[in-house]
Amino acid sequence: MALLGSAQAHRLRLAPVPALIGISLLAAYILVAVLAPILAPFPEAQIVGPKYAPRGAEFLLGTDNLGRDMLSRLIYATRNTIAISLLATILGFVAGTATGLLAATIGGWVEGALGRFVDVAMAIPQLIFALLVLTLTGTSITALIFVIGFVDSTRVFRLVRSVSSSVLALDFVEAARLRGEGYFWIMRREVLPNVVAPLLAEFGMRFCYVVLFISSLSFLGLGIQPPDADWGSMVRENAGLISYGEIAPLLPAAAIALCAIAVNLVVDWFLYQASGLKS
């Protein structure tokens, strides 16, 4: 374990500047998310002053349309958005990876049935599908995670099935079949380790997409519901301030952009490391 930790530390020291920037930004986001109740000067939903109070010593970013502290809301929004996005992305990846590996390995009618189901699901515009389901089931956090996880899993399924089919055509997989290994052993020991790199890149892209998707739903009123804060709802609640030259609505948008940049910088570095290339 000590040698493994030392190797990881050495690799981190040799990381390029863009990767270090991405790691630093992600660490800052995680720190803010974990320590939100400590870092926030006020509770998330507490009305602490007049609405649209200007920035000052008491309210560093001013107050929102109800008189809640903008800085506190932004900190709690970071925790809520990242936590829900991560859960939805993990759910989508687990479901998409499992079904994609199963379809590619077994083939036949299993692959045909799963493939046709995914094609039908992907034919429906994602935003319309999410709006329809959330309208019927209600806008709870659980429903939000499952709906976005399902939408994400269809994209992951197609990627996993494609890259797994290439691996399954190689000689070492055929040798495993001739040894009498079962489907699940082949999926777990032969295929999955050889598709980690593209899955890692896809995970970063899917996470950024989920953050944007949740923010879009919240902006439309069907995402994370008040009084809970998230980046999309903060933009909607304070959009009128843009007409007066205030930057408050732009701060959540900047948080979304920085999060996407940080994730992509780190994933690019991990993908480079997994490829075995040397500078």
Average pLDDT taken over every residue: 84
Helical percentage: over 70%
- Low-confidence segments, given as residue ranges, are 1-5
Strand content: under 5%
Please summarize the sheet with the most strands.
Answer: none
Radius of gyration in whole Å, from Cα?
22 Å
- Can you identify the CATH superfamily of the domain at 87-223 and 255-275? MetI-like
Class by SSE composition: mainly alpha
- The first-level CATH class name of the domain at 87-223 and 255-275: Mainly Alpha
User: What is the H/E order?
Assistant: HHHHHHHHHHHH
Distance between the ends:
27 Å
> Given the C-alpha coordinates, what overall shape results?
elongated
**CATH topology-level fold name of the domain at 87-223 and 255-275:** MetI-like fold
The CATH architecture name of the domain at 87-223 and 255-275 reads: Orthogonal Bundle
Helix count? 12
Q: What is the total tally of β strands?
A: 0
Identify the notable features of this structure and list them briefly.
mainly alpha; 72% helix; 12 helices; MetI-like fold; 279 residues
